[in-house]
Amino acid sequence: MPTPDFVLSLREKIGHELLWLPGITGVVLNGERQVLLVRRTDNGRWTLVTGMLEPGEEPAAGTLREIQEETGVTAEIEHMIHVGSHGPITFPNGDACTFLNVGFRCRYVSGEARVNDDESTDVGWFALGDLPELSERHLMLLDLALKADGVPAFER
Asked: Do residues 114 and 38 lie in contact, with contact meaning Cβ atoms separated by under 8 Å?
């Protein structure tokens, strides 16, 4: 799904000014201890599955929606792993955002991983020892997911 309508409406009023938005990250692991990654259309980088929540949408439900929309994979939430601020980020079109991000460890349930929308150019499962280059933040979230004990990490 491209930029949500509520963000486009705000952008009409404020242009590229900084927005504070609710975001999610899903770390999806399968039975072979592989992680699901997407290659973003906007910058070509490999990432965990990320997205924005719609107004009123619950973070866990939004995470599962984003995973399915972007990859065709059905997953289930196992643990909340992280809550924190991420940004500011300036996107290629000039839009600036900071996200209050909620991260979840998810378990693969079904579906064939594939490019399922226009937000990514590639989707795949990667062995933990053979990952493409990931941002420091996404490596941290992957590490938290692998060590998840049901207590989310956050800045104190």
From this structure: no
